[in-house]
Design brief:
This protein has 438 residues and is α/β, with parallel strands linked by helices. It has 18 helices and ten strands. Strands 1, 2, 3, 5, 6, 7, 8 and 9 form an eight-stranded mixed beta sheet that branches. Strands 4-10 form a two-stranded antiparallel ribbon. Helix 4 crosses helix 13 and helix 15 runs antiparallel to helix 18.
Length: 438
């Protein structure tokens, strides 16, 4: 009996270890777009898909996608940097590299500042291409027509992303009928943390916080090494907003500006080691502010299940599409425990081996692809994350990346039971704190 218990315990402990990515440092350091984390553009690098088990054919897809590449989501990114460089110039505190940065920045900043938060041309093209790949990868789903229901958040960049995707899908699959909308009520599912108070839902549950973000920043960032490259003196700095905010926004700009320009005027500002340090901080920030909202996404999880079950029952839908934000993608990534990303380590330094925010680039998406067989009543599915097949360590696969839909819905019901819906917050209570990235 003791031997059996030991085997069971060993297997349980090995479950998260199987998904642990110990090579993540080398992976991130080798790819600038991964160092950019959630600000990086979409990477069309998914491997070939595994054929379905014999006799099974795809018939329905449930999707959630982040908006495509955009300008910095908040104009503060541009103004904080501009104000600090101007203050340094007025104080005579810019190094030669700082003076060149100010000139290049002034030449660059007008267009992105005006367009802050808006979808870029690249973002539009990303969604057009993702739609084409979906339709061409699963032609059986769309071949005979059927209905596609698309919803987006009320954000401009999500609406335009939905437009790009649905127009492209219609071109590749002309027989389908597509309905699309963007309504405030959608936010209950599309971005629950920003749902109207009258319909907002809150769920019990929290995420472990190994260390405060400020403490981790303080012992991780090479403040002096970066700032000394730009400023010859920093006596003016605290009066102008402080070094932490400036460097945070400067890294945000570095991480994201290739979403809308080919310029390289920031590429020597951070050394590779400094880039990695900032990536690890941003990764932890996403884990806290986004991953910390994982149970908020129970509404999204239930919507996926309810609409898929309706499709299974024959409501005529061949796809349900949702377009939102990285706040939700990172949280859903953790809630679903994709490749073990829901694991909660005790040390900040261990987090990167489980949760990687570069898995939520611009236009990141998940696709539940459902399969059925004429000879077997069991519905199967696989989950694609940015086009790649992934594992769900909490349930047992049937064959490779294919799982029983009934096992998934049973797991989801257990999650909902363990994290029940809480009473509505009183009208005077503060709303949920919005995530920094959006």
């Amino acid at each position: 009996m003791r031997r059996i218990l030991l085997i069971v315990l060993t297997a349980a402990l090995a479950l998260p270890l199987a998904a642990q990515n110990r090579d993540v440092v080398n992976i991130v350091m080798a790819d600038r777009n991964k160092l950019a984390g959630c600000e990086g553009p979409y990477r069309f690098d998914a491997p070939a898909l595994t054929p379905a088990p014999k006799g099974y054919t795809p018939f329905y897809i449930s999707h959630y996608g982040r908006h495509g590449s955009r300008y910095a989501w908040n104009a503060n990114t541009y103004t904080v940097i501009k104000n600090m460089l101007d203050a340094a110039a007025a104080a005579g505190s810019l190094t030669p590299r700082g003076e060149r940065l100010l000139k290049d920045y002034n030449d660059f900043v007008t267009v992105p500042q005006i367009n802050a938060g808006d979808l870029s041309d690249l973002g539009y093209e990303q969604h057009r291409e993702i739609a084409k790949i979906m339709a061409n990868s699963f032609p059986e789903v769309f071949a005979n027509g059927g209905h596609v229901f698309a919803r987006s958040s009320t954000s401009q960049r999500a609406i335009v992303s939905m437009n790009a995707f649905t127009v492209s899908l219609q071109q590749v699959a002309p027989k389908v009928d597509i309905t699309a909308n963007s309504r405030a009520l959608n936010m209950v599912v599309i971005n629950a943390a920003s749902a109207p108070r009258a319909v907002a839902k809150r769920y019990q549950g929290s995420t472990k916080t190994p260390e405060s973000l400020d403490a981790f920043k303080a012992r991780t960032i090479d403040f002096d090494g970066i700032l000394d490259k730009i400023f010859s003196d920093r006596g003016f700095m605290e009066e102008s907003g402080g070094r932490t905010q400036f460097l945070s926004e400067l890294f945000t700009l570095w991480a994201g500006y290739h979403n809308y320009t080919d310029s390289d005027f920031l590429e020597d500002i951070f050394t590779p080691e400094q880039q990695f340090a900032f990536w690890e901080i941003e990764n932890y920030s996403c884990y806290l502010s986004h991953g910390g909202q994982r149970y908020t996404q129970i509404s999204l999880l239930q919507d996926v299940i309810d609409l898929a079950n309706s499709a299974i029952a024959g409501n005529g839908n061949v796809a349900d599409l949702r377009f939102g934000h990285d706040t939700v993608m990172n949280a859903f990534y953790a809630l679903l425990n994709i490749n073990g990303a829901g694991y909660e380590p005790d040390k900040v330094e261990d987090l990167k081996y489980w949760f990687q925010n570069y898995n939520t680039p611009m236009a990141a998406n998940v696709q539940f692809v459902l399969y059925r067989s004429k000879k077997n009543p069991e519905i199967l599915f696989k989950l694609l994350h940015n086009g790649a097949e992934v594992t769900l360590p909490q349930i047992q696969p049937v064959d490779g990346p294919y799982y029983r839909w009934s096992d998934f819905t049973a797991w989801a019901a257990k999650v909902a039971a363990e994290h029940p819906l809480l009473p509505a917050a009183p009208a005077s209570a503060a709303s949920s704190t919005p995530a920094r990235r959006y």
